Amino acid sequence: MNAVIDVYRRSPFWATFVLVMLKMVLFRQFNFGTIQIDRLLADAAAVLVILCIAELLTTARWKSVVFGSVNGLLSLILFACSVYFAFFGSVPTYTALSGLDQVGQVGDSVKAAISPKFYVLFADLVVLVVFALFSLRGKTRRSGAGSAGKPLYVGIALIIALGASVVYVRTDMDISNELVQAERLGVLNYQVATAINERRANEAIKDADPEKTAAALEQLEQEQFGTKTQAGMPKLFGAAKGKNVIVVQLESFQDILVGLELGGKEVTPVLNDLIENDGSYYWTNIFQQIGQGNTSDAEWNVNTGIYPTGTEAMSKGYGDRAVPALPRLLAEDGYVTNTFHVNDVTFWDRNRMYPALGFTKYYDKPFFENDKFNALGASDEEMYRVGFDVLQQHHKEGKPFYAQFITTSSHHPFWIPEKFKKIDVPQSLKKTQLGYYIEATNYTDYALGLLIDNLKQNGMWEDTMLVVYGDHFGIQEKEAAPEFVEEQLGINYDNRIARFNVPLLIHVPGVEGASSKQVGGQLDIMATVSNLLGLDLKEKGLSIFGKDLLNTDKNVLGMRYYLPTGSFFNNDIMFIPGKGFEDGTAYDIETYEPVADFSKYRGDYDYILNLMKLSDEYVKLLPKR
Ligand code: GP9
Ligand code: MN
Fold it and tell me: Distance, CA 295 to ligand 1 centroid (Å)?
């Protein structure tokens, strides 16, 4: 041990280099499952740049402290990135790490993502700190006795390392798949590539104009789907014209729950009833399309039909805009627009996003009695109790309303108080994460039923269109492996297609609904709802990046963030790119089995990359409020 410490004292530069590189090896193993020796050179170049700069800027007296701090900081970054990767399946960018201030309130979920092995990243630091304390007590302070060498050599090393980093970054700069890019460049150079790409995109916006973007979108759609031959109005245009609209976003709600029975009991009796007896439209192949903003991005998707950029929560990046969103359009038509969520409105910057979307009023934490349901506060029941009173008031005053309810009772980790549980899960699921998930989502379904009953009993059901969908997956592979889910629930399940599949239901009074296998995503909800309300979005000058699902039989939709950019779903497959299209992988959307020959979908890949680029351009050009 003493010998090791002696090496550190004599050459903190090289000792730190070796220690940090060992951590880079661990980071690759933890997250990518392989060390990738050739790509370690990219890590080495970036680490050398940082260490050379530290070496040149510090005097001998401070070297041990400075190199110790650099080591500490890099260890912290690698630790945070590993936790993030365990939770989201991607390497975070600097913007994602800066958004980590949100984690406090979902602390239980974050704790669950920390694997004990990640703490190894700090092992050397503990030893070094203990040693530093001893050497201080013994007054043997002799820091930086040796160093990396003379400034000239360090300068040359810096230039070589910097040059190598530039070459690495330039070579892999244009890979759209973030995961492949991060693996190739290493966590540090990946940040540089992200920053350069972000700057490039912002520069390009300076010459763009919304009309050109709209024209380019129109052309892209025509090339991809052809000109519509259908004459006259689209099907069901205005079928819910003038009706109230209630949009319910179900937290962590996967489509596998709908229709599921456990021990002879339905998990979602309310949703099942809406589909079977109330005659709703129900789509079985709808996929989440959220980015970094998770729940809040789902709200964004549904109200705007614009792709999340994936590089930041949309509420954070675009909360200062006047977005031509559904609440804003309906407010122009005389609707009162409210949104209800029991958590603090500042979470996910909703205090900025709601006015950006044009909501007239939001109801957050102070409006609800905290029945201490979970870490986010009150139960769904309480949210609907308060919300219903508000809506009934509007109804009495004869004002049409658009109301959004963001549920929270089925938020991860799904631990709900005993007294709220409505379902008795089979013994084999008791005290398992999957069991907790079933209990929480069953409660979510139950609480929604109370809202529906209230609407029916008070003569509001026939005046109201109800839209219900899931914000994103709930099941984490680490907590419930796909095989376990299959065995326990008796279903065909996989970790991507089935996990990203959320339900979508729309109930329109007086209209006989239907179940549909048409593939779609959250971005399609705005176009579908607008059609039912008789809103012609094109006529209003909006660019919409989703499709009206009631008038579509072909669809291609993109997913980023939870899958690398360039990934898409179409009527047949889920596609995930590699470095590009050719080295990608495709899976059958029904069987989840790999599809070997996917060459005929090349056009869909090009289309989705272009579509998302146009969407990013469009959102960046939106006017500030
Ligand atoms: C908090 C809630 C968090 O307000 O929206 O949900 P999440 O984004 O963690 O799913
Ligand atoms: Mn959520």
Answer: 5
Which of 456, 455, 293 minimizes the C-alpha distance to 384? 455
Tell me how far the alpha carbon of residue 2 lies from the centroid of ligand 2, in angstroms. 51
- Domain chopping of the chain, boundaries: 2-203, 244-549
Q: Which ligand is nearest to the CA of 471?
A: 2
Nearest residue by C-alpha to atom 6 in ligand 1? 295
Spell out the residues 6+ positions from residue 520 whose beta carbon is closer than 8 angstroms to its own.
Answer: 283, 285, 286, 287, 504, 546, 547, 549, 552, 555, 557
Closest by Cα among 620, 623, 538 to 207: 620
Asked if residue 158 lies in contact with residue 52, where contact means CB atoms within 8 angstroms, the answer is yes
Q: Which residues pair with 401 in a beta bridge?
A: 336
CA 327 to ligand 2 centroid distance, Å: 21
Q: Is-contact 296 308, C-beta < 8 A?
A: no
For ligand 1, atom 3, the nearest C-alpha belongs to: 295
pTM score of the predicted model: 0.91
154-209 pLDDT tens trace: 999 999 999 999 999 999 999 999 999 999 999 999 999 999 998 998 888 888 88
CATH class of the 244-549 domain in this structure: alpha beta
Residues with a CB atom less than 6 Å from ligand 1:
106, 294-295, 343, 347-348, 376, 411
